[in-house]
Design a protein that fits this description.
alpha/beta, 346 residues, 2 domains, elongated, five-stranded antiparallel beta sheet, 14 strands, Rossmann fold
Length: 346
């Protein structure tokens, strides 16, 4: 929703009513994830997507009908439905879409919220789904709920994962829409790999901070597009930016006097991802010294080192891609396994 706010505001400035369709459940090979949004104006203009293009027309018609009736509804689009054959969910997946006559004010406020001191991990909006919402498909019984979990627990879990989700409670079905704050990538070491890494991370919406105590390396000419460039020792810089659980830390300086204090401090502050460059031998020596410095076995097990997935590349941009791929996998709970292997292909 956040990426659509600019166009939403422009349409509202024109005096246009704007309705919304949002994916609330997915099954099989659905092209978009829960929380994906399509906005539709009263004169038929659209922005966003709920299916990658194959059911947008049908969803837009449903938004128009919701505007006429004034009522929200949930519609299932899938290859087994007659409608899906005509609109073409060719991927074979199924999606449940919440269609609303307008965009709720709570959703707008949550989408406009920005990261910063005191923002925490973000916020969620809970929407009670209509009574006639289709039940979960038989091949997916719905989001699992830990025993005894409260709605607040479920909201916190959705926010921590950065994923919207639909849950079946004892007395109602709700859609928990997650609006996590913008994730941060904190890079220690203003190296050539760092230059490529922050460029790639920018395309994925990360706030990017580069830290290096060496002023000759940490220059605006070498890093013109980062959000913040800090010439300081990592521990002091981490305090200045209030490093915390929303942050991924990539330590690329390859110098023990920078690397090891930075690793220890990143774990102390609860960063969600901590990775460091270095060969396997370097990593073994580093882990020994970090253990002697007080890091626990669990913390050492959580250190991504050597950093990145094994893509086989050695150029700075290729290494940066491998690092960012691992950061995304860690954030989203991915395995890094090739999709054809997960699907059982050869």
């Amino acid at each position: 929703m956040r990426e659509l706010l600019g166009q939403y505001d422009a349409w509202r400035a024109e005096g246009l009513a704007v309705g919304r369709a949002v994916v609330i459940r997915t099954y099989g090979s659905a092209p978009r994830q829960e929380g994906s949004v399509l906005l539709v104006t009263e004169d038929g203009r659209m922005i966003g997507s709920v299916s990658g293009g194959c059911v947008e027309g049908a969803a837009a018609e449903a938004v128009a009908e919701a505007r006429r009736s004034g009522h929200a509804s949930v519609i299932r689009y899938g290859i087994s439905d007659d409608l899906a054959w005509s609109v073409g969910l060719a991927c074979g997946g199924t999606i449940d879409v919440l269609v609303q006559p307008g965009v709720p004010e709570a959703v707008l406020a949550a989408a406009r919220a920005q990261s910063g001191p005191g923002a925490g991990l973000g916020t969620t909006v809970v929407t009670d789904l209509p009574a006639d919402t289709p039940p979960p498909a038989t091949d997916r019984p719905g989001a699992s709920i830990p025993a005894g979990a409260s709605l607040d627990d479920l909201r916190a879990g959705a926010l921590a994962a950065g994923r919207s989700r639909t849950v079946e409670l004892a007395d109602r079905t709700v859609f928990i829409e997650a609006f996590p704050v913008r994730p941060r990538l904190v890079v220690v070491g203003a190296t050539e790999i760092a230059r490529s890494l922050v460029g790639l991370a920018g395309a994925l919406g990360y706030e990017r901070i580069v830290i290096d105590a060496r002023a000759a390396f940490a220059t605006a000419e070498r890093f013109p597009d980062v959000d913040r460039l800090i010439v300081d020792w990592p521990e002091d810089a981490f305090a200045a930016i209030n490093l915390g659980p929303n942050d991924a830390v990539a330590i690329l300086s390859h110098d023990p006097k920078f690397d090891e204090p930075a690793i220890a401090e990143a774990f102390r502050r609860g960063a969600r991802y901590v990775g460091a460059v270095g060969s396997r031998r370097t990593q073994a020596d580093r882990r020994r010294r970090l253990s002697e410095a007080g890091l626990t076995d669990d913390q050492l097990a959580g250190l991504h080192g050597p950093i990145g997935l094994d893509l086989g590349g050695r150029e700075p941009a290729e290494t940066a891609l491998a690092i960012l791929a691992e950061i995304v996998a860690a954030r989203r709970g991915g395995s890094g396994t090739p999709m054809h292997a997960r699907a059982g292909g050869s």
